[in-house]
Amino acid sequence: MKIKNYHLATSLQDAYEVLTESRNNAIVAGGGWLKLSSRTIEKAVDLSDLPLDYIKETDNAVEIGSMTPLQKIVESEALMKICKGILPQAVSQIMGVSLRNLVTVGGSVVGKYGFSDVLTPLLAMNTKLVFYKQGETTLPEFLSQKGRTDDVLEKVVLPKTAGTGYFKKVAKTPLDFAVLNVAITKIDDQYRIVLGSRPSVATLSEEAMAYVNGKKSLRDEDLEHAAKLVRKNVKFGQNPRASQEYREELAYVYTKRGLKEVRDCES
Amino acid sequence: MKVNATINGMKRVLDVQPDEYLVDTLRRYNYLSVRRGCDTTSCGVCTILVDDQPVPSCAYLSVRADGKTITTVEGIPKHAEKLSEHFGETGADQCGFCNSGIALSVYALQKSGKGITDETLRHYLVGHLCRCTGYQAQHQAIKKYLGDSDE
Amino acid sequence: MSKSFKAVNVKTPSIDGKGIMMGRPAFTDDLALKDSLIIKVLRSPHAFAKIVSIDTKKAEELAGVEIVLTHKDFKRNAYTRAGQGYPEPSPHDKFPLDEYVRYVGDEVAAVAAVDEATALEALSLIEVEYEKLTPVLDFEQAKGHESIIHPEEDIYEMFPIGFDPKKNVAAAYSMEVGDVERTLKESDVVVEESFYTQAQAHVMLEPHTVNAHIDYQDRLVLYSATQTPFHVRRILSQTLEIPLSKIRVIKPRVGGGFGGKQAIHGEMLAAAITKRTGKPSKLTYTRKEVFESSCTRHPMRLDMKIGATKDGKITGIDCYGLSDTGAYGEHALTVFMVTGSKVLPLYNKVDSVRFHGDVVYTNTVSSGAFRGYGAIQGNYALESIVDMLAEKLGMDPMELRQKNMILENETSPIFEIMGEGTEGTAMNMDSCKLDYCVKRGMELIDYKNKYPKRKVSDHKVRSIGGAIAMQGSGIPYIDMGAAILKLNDDGFYNLMVGATEIGQGSDTILAQIAAEQLGVDVSKVIVYSSDTDLTPFDPGAYASSTTYVSGNAVLKAAKEMRSMVIAEAARSLEVDIERIEFDGEVFRVKGEDDKITLSDLSNRLYYNEDQKQLVATGSYYGTKSPPPFMAGFVEVEVDLETGEYDVLDYVSVVDCGTTINPELARGQVEGGIVQGLGMAVTEDVHYAKNGKLITSDMLNYKIPTNLTLKKLTTEFADSYEESGPYGAKSVGEIGIDTPPAAIANAIYNATGVRIKTLPVTSEKILKRLKDKEI
């Protein structure tokens, strides 16, 4: 990664203007994964002087400023209350403390990394994103957009719903990217099932969700069936961390276990 | 570019490139305790404190240090010395390439005032890889150090 | 057995721990001259190619570039990077730069420039035209492959090692005691299986680092993060044709080696560049270069056959090995031989034993020395198949071991037949507490109650696995250590040793040995190690030799110094030597009040009367290599639905003779265990189809963390090796050997599936479990 010029943004408007000046300009969030890229940035736009480092509770939501380091999420009591705290729980399993002090929630979201342990729980929690220009959008909608994001992420908004949740990261060591991660939530009686690090980017398992949400009550065999739907319908792939077959098997096992945990937790 | 930072209590003006990282800048300015292990934020060797928080200096853009307080292990000699005594006690010293980074994380933990258990301490330090010791002697030494300092 | 000591076998903090923790400049890069030229290396994108043309003009013209070197700039002197005693048992098959590139990451050209950015830009300006050749990537296809990796005529072996490059064979070996085929035919029970081990990476946290300058006496001075400074000096001299007397190699603090820094890496280019430019230069490998362009452990396939009588006497062991040395043949023969020689004698009561096979070249990262050095590969295969044999016999695997393993005062014919690259040395096991290690290990792991497994939930099982191991203590008649002790005014000593401190604590334990003999506190022995100008010779830190070989040299020097100071005290007190009593601090005349302190005597010697400098030297080479032994037991918890497992406890009971420094010895064992667990559990190696290493950074190559295992339980047997310094044997490698087999055995006990290819990943376990269901 080469950076030719550095620009410390003075406002979101300023950041947006500089970003959109050229395709070769880019926002640098935490910078944790900058080196993995071999591109040359003409102008790096730094948001660190803007007041975007916060976790704020409003009446019905918790808002996380895009420049909030992941470690603050781990330590947030407000976030612990949403869906049994699967977001802090998931984030606490990302590398070590020092990296989590550096990388930001904004960088983790906008990067749309396949290996992300942040997107998986967020996707299970009705997450909304607020961009400077585009305004509010949902996380699934954002993930479905192809190509570069020509906008500045301002905050990530989580509805303040108690709900319940489950998160599992399967990894070779605590410092490795996930072989697979699974997040399952139940909010207002609706289950959401998310598979991440497939190794491609996290996704909802619509078939399995439709199946479980269509049931009045969930018997063990229903959970098993839902887990089979995940294995069958979600697209898994292979990389040096695992084969497609192993990911499918893990997805099956942990969906089953996760659904059971979430179901039993409520009752 | 010029960066104004307080390093180990001293105001310094650093001349840096826009894509330079603190590990390189600090070594260039003779803070030689800051060493590069992996260059991909995976090992913890290059850990420094920025505003009292441990960060990997191999991924911290130097320009961002403007107005910040930076601590390297040269800035906490008393704590490092005390910790080294505990390392000596448990036989946790081996090559020591990772020790300065560990000392800074331990110092930050100590300063945060958080209580620790075996489990939370291990999780707190998981980002510090060591290829020599097998970790157990380090863990014992750090636990004793934190216990001592509490008193 | 144990004796009472003052300085050895007592808790002694590392003499350098404080300064290192406080971040004082110590490591190679800390000591580089300011404004050193930065060296960067252009590396091959191809697994096998011939350089048709190389144009460096644009790079040379770039402002700030000092020099660009290609193969055209070097005389063709073949050498080996291995860093072994001379003549080396490794083929001279490498050139500083060559017209062939033999793996992705091989050196093509080197640039030295004013800064890193300029050097990197210069690399991008070098125009290379390659003729791509068919690479050999599968080591099982290498022998006799139509593609010849080393077709050049000017490479050679130093003495017969089975070197046959036209067949892609770097070395070959064969030995047999008795008639193994007949023995196995006549055995009641025979088990046969093949095992595969991977190219483990050392991942020492300090990358390979070197800097060079010409000093004011016009000599080439190198600071290098090396385990073998004297070998580095010799190899540079021979290859670059610089007189040995014109080179000085200094080894500063080294940030871990594990065998990876036994070989020479950046030293050749840094020396060549500084020699040519007259300017200081430095070269630090990127982490990617450490993975991609240094050395790894030799991957192997080991075909094992083992036979026994019905009642569990092991009758014969047959091992055919195929070892992959990668692009160059560093340690090809010797690692391979250790796979037999430091493993097979564990079962010394066999009628027949055979060990044979080839070490082949491939177009992959070169293999080299790595802690365990063949023994870990052999141990995994042998200790896996012993468990398989036990099952077939219907015997407890530890009982089978206890019945057949080597005991104190016994020997094995293998010791005489197999050395390292040469014939071996017959020896008896004068100290061998393996029987105690096994018994105590079983107690500590609670074998009686926990073996083989217990169900802990509907899908989780806990199980136990074990293995035994042996290593060596230096190479007899080859490895020598030397020490110089100097008395200073005020009565403290300097200890100069060639022995190479690489973080394992050798400076500390050698000071302890000297202090014990001299009767002083360790703080009175100031150690300086590994500087080819100032310290005596030592081959370096490898082959588990430092405590035993260099330790014995220090002990000899200290004995000599002790008699020298006593003689001087007698002279000053005007009595016969026999009448002097000396406790390390004060000389007393027996039965009289006359006395003189060492401090006063020293001051008198240097300032006042009969002035002279007292210097004592000691040299030692082993006439045997007493093996340390250990028993290792692991408890794992396996998830039967996913194949994932946690390592709950690793019990090690070790016989390394006297532990000179008990805490540091424990550190050696525990560090070895966890590094061995890395090989067993997490450290997967992946190559792309074109031969490029995928696991070439620490994001993708995963070494154990502090959460990888829950607990280490380490104990030492009460043991005393008469030939060792204060009863010590070496302890650097023994810890690494058992984890692969212990893990594989534990997984088998939990699941009924045997993993025969390292590492033992959860994916492999689950796949085998699924296959079993079908």
Spell out the blueprint of helices and strands.
The complex is a heterotrimer of chains A (267), B (151) and C (774).
Chain A: E1 2-8, H1 12-21, E2 25-28, E3 40-46, E4 55-57, E5 61-65, H2 70-74, H3 77-80, H4 86-91, H5 97-102, H6 105-110, H7 119-123, E6 128-131, E7 135-138, H8 139-144, E8 153-159, E9 164-170, E10 180-187, E11 190-196, E12 203-204, H9 206-213, H10 220-233, H11 244-266
Parallel strand pairs in A: 1-3, 2-3
Antiparallel strand pairs in A: 4-5, 5-8, 6-7, 6-8, 9-10, 10-11, 11-12
Helix pairs in contact in A: 9-10, 10-11
Chain B: E1 2-7, E2 10-15, H1 22-28, E3 47-50, E4 53-56, E5 69-71, H2 77-90, H3 99-112, H4 118-124, H5 136-150
Parallel strand pairs in B: 1-5
Antiparallel strand pairs in B: 1-2, 3-4, 3-5
Helix pairs in contact in B: 2-5
Chain C: H1 17-21, E1 37-43, E2 49-55, H2 57-61, E3 65-69, E4 100-101, E5 107-113, H3 116-125, E6 127-132, E7 169-177, H4 180-186, E8 189-197, E9 209-214, E10 220-224, H5 229-240, E11 247-250, H6 267-277, E12 281-284, H7 287-293, E13 300-308, E14 314-326, H8 332-341, E15 352-361, H9 375-393, H10 397-404, H11 413-417, H12 434-445, H13 447-450, E16 453-455, E17 460-470, E18 480-487, E19 493-497, H14 506-518, E20 525-529, H15 546-573, E21 580-582, E22 586-589, E23 595-597, H16 598-608, E24 615-621, E25 629-639, E26 645-655, H17 662-682, E27 712-716, H18 739-751, H19 762-773
Parallel strand pairs in C: 1-12, 10-11, 14-15, 19-20, 26-27
Antiparallel strand pairs in C: 1-5, 2-4, 2-6, 3-5, 7-15, 8-13, 9-10, 9-12, 13-14, 16-17, 17-25, 18-19, 18-24, 21-22, 22-23, 25-26
